[in-house]
Every structure is written in structure tokens, then in C-alpha cells.
Design a protein that fits this description.
The complex is a heterodimer of chains A (about 190) and B (about 350). Chain A is α+β, with helices and mostly antiparallel strands and about 190 residues long. In chain A, about 45% of the residues lie in helices and about 15% in strands. In chain A, a hairpin with a 2-residue loop joins β3 and β4. Helix content of chain B is about 40%, strand content about 20%. The interface between A and B is medium-sized, with 21 and 25 residues.
Chain lengths: ~190, ~350
């Protein structure tokens, strides 16, 4: 899997639990190195092994860890690039949701080797949304949930998010948009440097 | 078309950077985004040519000229600071008025910074947002690549500094030579050091190029490994200088035989891209007896002195070190082949 994903997990872990404990994760995951390189590609089996090691070291569930990683990606100060690139997706949170289908393609434009799993936004009969996530990595839906929660906050929208389980490699999220303009949100200027 | 223009809200949505000009060139309406470029002064009521300079095509100074540029790509710039560059396309309406639609073109990045624009300032069909997204994403990726390259470069330099292997030939390098000599000297063992300098190598490099030179060095390295014992260590000191460390030496004749085999083999022409590269070798050898306890520097200097004598004696010679060689009088003037040279 792309180094950016592995490195994000490492950055999340080190920012919250420190480098010393990360060395435990690396050795438990069977890595013969401790630092992931953002711009390199690693064998696919490494990412689940690292996640299992993170969960074991922290004694937390895969779901919790994945959601935290997703939130970290968007909301962590000092890692503003992801948040900014996602904000290009739309003027409002509703707009942003509608842009999610394009996310894997947009990502590939930026980094041709980074293949994100396919996702699709569906509008439910109740007027709310479901996000269908192909999840080759167990818990990818939770990661997207963390991303959406942080992005809703960024746009100033109030949403309820619920993970509806996993079946046949697909994880589904229920998105209830309670209020679009709940709070001020963070400003997004196209020309600001991240 | 005119009837569409009655409702400027339509144009504001489709082309938020358009200007609607009267027949005399007064701005009658300005799209919401172009107005954002001059938030302190309304564009409506100003004269188009007072506001915007038409840089290309050349020679457009009035409405008459402008209307002739219908359908042509206009290169424009705002007259007062910030003098943002704009691209424009002009379409005359039937009633004497003119629409000039504007865009940032390549100046988009400066534009959005100068005027704090957001996604909402561009039509949803405008590629500007995608372009900004790509520029930002690619810049981030480039920066990450640049940092990776720097780290790899540092790691490579560090690894080369620590390496014991010469990259070009796969032989051991000077660091390895020093380590082995220290070990042999400390152990007080008998060993020999053979300095080998290629003859005519510079001529090959100069006439046939560096690729030929590299090929020769690699071939020479292979020959030296072939013609020495497996317990011997062949070192490339750099350039066309080589050293062989031979442990466990019983007699001088064995050293002579090895030296001669190396010279003989090196004198066989080496083929490169259909050209024959001819080199030879000069050798200087020092034989350290058990318990001699000379420092590494002295051992290497003595081997140098012997090599120097071989070079002086003509080429393709093999000289054994003797204390007499260290006396300057014996080195100058050159005396050919009388200093224990056993080559050729």
C-alpha cells in the first residue's frame, strides 16, 4: 500500500503516543525499519499488520483506531494539506459530500500510485445519505467516518454519523445532515498556503 | 442573445467575471467576481479603457478597435495595482453593447491570493478550482518527493563513507585496506603489499572516453582477482591505482610469479565497442617479515617507493622494496631496469 497511508498511521500514533511506543508497534508488526517513507510503496500486507500492532499496543479496537486516524488526517494542526485538498471538493458540506465519489480519481491525479478504495454517496429515501465504501482494509469505513466528522466540523455543519457494519468487503456509513450552517466553521481561501 | 442579457443574473452565474460595455465603452454591469478585484471602487460607470489595458492584440485603443477583436483571445491587465493579468473574450450584442468575459488564465494562483477568492467565486463549470487543487496537490507531492530524495542522498553518502567496497569495480577500497593492514601489523604477521599502477590508462580515457576507461578498470579488477590467491585482497585505491595485500608469503619467487602473471594478463588488449584498449602495469612490492612491526604509513610509503622505481625504470616493471630506494639519489636520474626490476 502507498507509503502515505502507512506514514499517516505512524504520524497519528507518534503525535498521540510518542516515538518510543511506535518502536514497539514497528517490531510487533515485523517491520525491519521504523520510519515509513511517504513517497514509497509498501507491500499490501504491511498496513493491516501495523494496524493490528497499533491496536494491540494501545489495547483499542480497530474501529476506534481507524476513526481516530481519519480525524487526525483532517484536523491535526501541522498536517493541513489533506484538509485543504478536501475543501477544494465543495463550497458547502453538502457540496463536499457530493464530491466524495470523485475522491479516488482526484487523489490519483495528485499521486498516480495512490489508489484509494472506491466510494459512492447514495441519497436515501429519507432525504439523508449513505456512503458505500469498498474496504479492502478492514475498518476503512471508520477511517472515512473520522474524515467526515472532521470535515463537517471544518465546514461548520452538524452531522450524525453511524457505521452500519461490514458485508462482502463493503462498509456502509449513514450520514444524517442535521444542520448545514450549525457553526462558523473554518475559512477556506483558495490561495492561502497550507 | 440580447433578451438573455436583460437578466444579468444569468450572466453573473455563468460568467461571474464578465463586463457588459455600452457602445461608448462605459462599463454598464460587472460580474460579482470581477468586481471583487476592485472592492473599494465600483466598476460600473468607469470607462473600460481607463480600467483595463489591452496588451494583445496590439493597437487596440478604442471601442472601434475592440469590436474588431471579436472572438479573439485578448491579453489584458488591470491598469492600477495589483495589475492582475487577465484573459478575455469579446462578443458584441446586436444592440451596440459588448460582453467581455474575463478569466485569470495562468495568473490564477496570484489572483486567488491577491483577492482572497473562494470556490463560490467561480462558476461550477470553471476549471479554475480543479487547476488550483492540482497545483496544490502536486506541490505537496513534489515537496514530499524532494524531502525523500534529500534523505536518500544523505543515506547514500553515509553508506558510501562506511562502505568497504569500491562501487565501480566491486574490489575493496582504501578503508578496507587500512583496516586489513592494521590487523596484519598488530598481529605481527608476515605479508606483502603490492602497489599496481596502470600504464597508458590516461591515454585510453582521453582517446576512447570514460565509458571505455570504466570498462578497462572493471576488466583489470577481474584479472587481478583471477591472478591472485583467494586469500589475497585486491583493493582499488582510486583512479588507476590498485593494491594487493598478500598474507602468508613464504618466498619472493611466489610474489614475482603473481606480479608477472598480472602484468602479462593486463597487456592483453581489452576490447571495448570494437576498439582495443591497450594498457600495462607497473608494480612495486614490499614484503614484511614476521615481527617487522612497521607502521601502516611506512609500509605503504615503502611500496610507493618500489612502484616509483618501476615507473622510472620504464613500464611494465616489478620492483621489490629495498632501503636503498628511499635514498633520493637513487631515484634521480632514472636508471633503467637496474633496481631489482624483474618485469618485462
Amino acid at each position: 500500500m502507498h507509503g502515505l497511508i502507512n506514514r499517516s498511521i505512524q504520524n497519528y500514533f507518534c503525535a498521540n503516543y510518542g516515538r518510543e511506543l511506535w518502536a514497539d508497534v514497528a517490531s510487533r508488526a515485523g517491520l525491519d525499519f521504523t520510519e515509513f517513507e511517504v513517497m514509497l510503496t509498501y507491500p499490501d500486507h504491511i498496513t493491516p499488520a501495523v494496524l493490528d500492532a497499533v491496536c494491540a499496543v494501545l489495547d483499542r479496537s480497530r474501529a476506534e483506531v481507524m476513526e481516530d486516524v481519519g480525524t487526525f488526517l483532517v484536523a491535526q494542526p501541522g498536517y493541513g494539506a489533506v484538509r485543504r485538498l478536501l475543501r477544494f471538493g465543495g463550497v458547502s458540506f453538502g457540496d463536499f459530500l457530493q464530491s466524495l465519489d470523485d475522491l479516488p480519481d482526484r487523489t490519483r491525479l495528485a499521486l498516480s500510485e495512490l489508489r484509494l478504495p472506491w466510494i459512492e454517496l447514495r441519497e436515501d429515501p429519507d432525504g439523508q445519505y449513505s456512503l458505500i465504501c469498498a474496504a479492502p482494509l478492514v475498518g476503512y469505513g471508520y477511517l472515512m467516518m473520522g474524515v467526515l466528522r472532521a470535515m463537517a466540523d471544518d465546514y461548520g455543519a452538524l452531522v450524525l454519523l453511524e457505521h452500519c457494519g461490514r458485508a462482502a468487503g463493503i462498509e456502509t456509513l449513514k450520514i444524517i445532515l442535521v444542520e448545514v450552517d450549525f457553526s462558523e466553521g473554518r475559512s477556506f481561501e483558495l490561495g492561502a498556503r497550507a | 442573445m440580447s433578451e438573455v442579457i436583460q437578466d444579468t443574473a444569468v450572466l453573473d452565474k455563468l460568467c461571474p467575471m464578465h463586463l457588459l460595455l455600452s457602445a461608448t465603452g462605459v462599463i454598464g454591469h460587472a460580474g460579482p467576481t470581477i468586481q471583487k478585484l476592485r472592492p473599494q471602487s465600483p466598476l460600473v460607470g468607469r470607462r473600460f479603457f481607463d480600467t483595463v489595458a489591452v496588451k494583445r492584440p496590439r493597437g487596440i485603443h478604442g471601442m472601434e478597435d475592440l469590436r474588431r477583436a471579436t472572438g479573439v483571445k485578448l491579453h489584458l491587465a488591470l491598469r492600477d495595482a495589483p495589475r492582475t493579468e487577465l484573459k478575455g473574450l469579446l462578443v458584441p450584442l446586436g444592440d451596440g453593447r459588448t460582453i467581455v468575459n474575463l478569466s485569470f488564465g495562468i495568473s490564477i494562483f496570484d489572483g486567488v491570493q491577491d483577492y482572497a477568492l473562494t470556490n463560490a467565486d467561480f462558476a461550477a463549470t470553471d476549471m479554475a478550482i480543479e487547476m488550483l487543487y492540482l497545483m496544490e496537490a502536486k506541490s505537496a507531492a513534489m515537496e514530499a518527493s524532494r524531502r525523500l530524495n534529500l534523505r536518500l542522498q544523505e543515506a547514500r553518502i553515509a553508506a558510501e563513507e562506511q562502505a568497504f567496497t569500491d562501487i565501480l569495480t566491486g574490489l575493496k577500497n582504501r578503508r578496507a585496506l587500512n583496516a586489513v593492514l592494521e590487523r596484519l601489523i598488530t598481529a605481527g604477521e608476515s605479508f606483502a603489499v603490492m602497489h599496481i599502477d596502470l600504464d597508458y590508462f590516461k591515454a585510453v580515457n582521453d582517446s576512447l572516453g570514460h565509458a571505455a576507461g570504466d570498462h578497462v578498470l572493471q576488466t583489470v579488477a577481474r584479472i587481478m582477482v583471477q591472478e591472485t590467491r583467494s586469500s589475497d585482497m585486491v583493493v582499488r585505491l582510486g583512479g588507476d591505482e590498485f593494491t594487493v595485500v598478500l598474507p602468508d608469503v613464504r618466498n619472493e619467487s611466489m610474489l614475482k610469479r603473481i606480479g608477472q602473471r598480472i602484468i602479462d594478463q593486463l597487456e592483453e588488449p581489452i576490447q571495448f565497442n570494437g576498439k582495443a584498449c591497450k594498457v600495462s602495469a607497473s608494480i612495486g612490492t614490499v614484503w614484511i617479515q614476521r615481527g617487522d612491526r612497521q607502521s601502516r604509513e611506512v609500509v605503504l610509503a615503502n611500496a610507493d617507493a618500489a612502484l616509483y622505481a618501476s615507473k622510472h625504470a620504464g613500464r611494465a616493471r616489478h620492483t621489490f622494496y629495498s632501503p636503498a630506494l628511499r635514498r633520493p639519489a637513487n631515484l634521480d636520474p632514472p636508471t633503467s631496469g637496474e633496481q631489482g626490476a624483474c618485469g618485462s
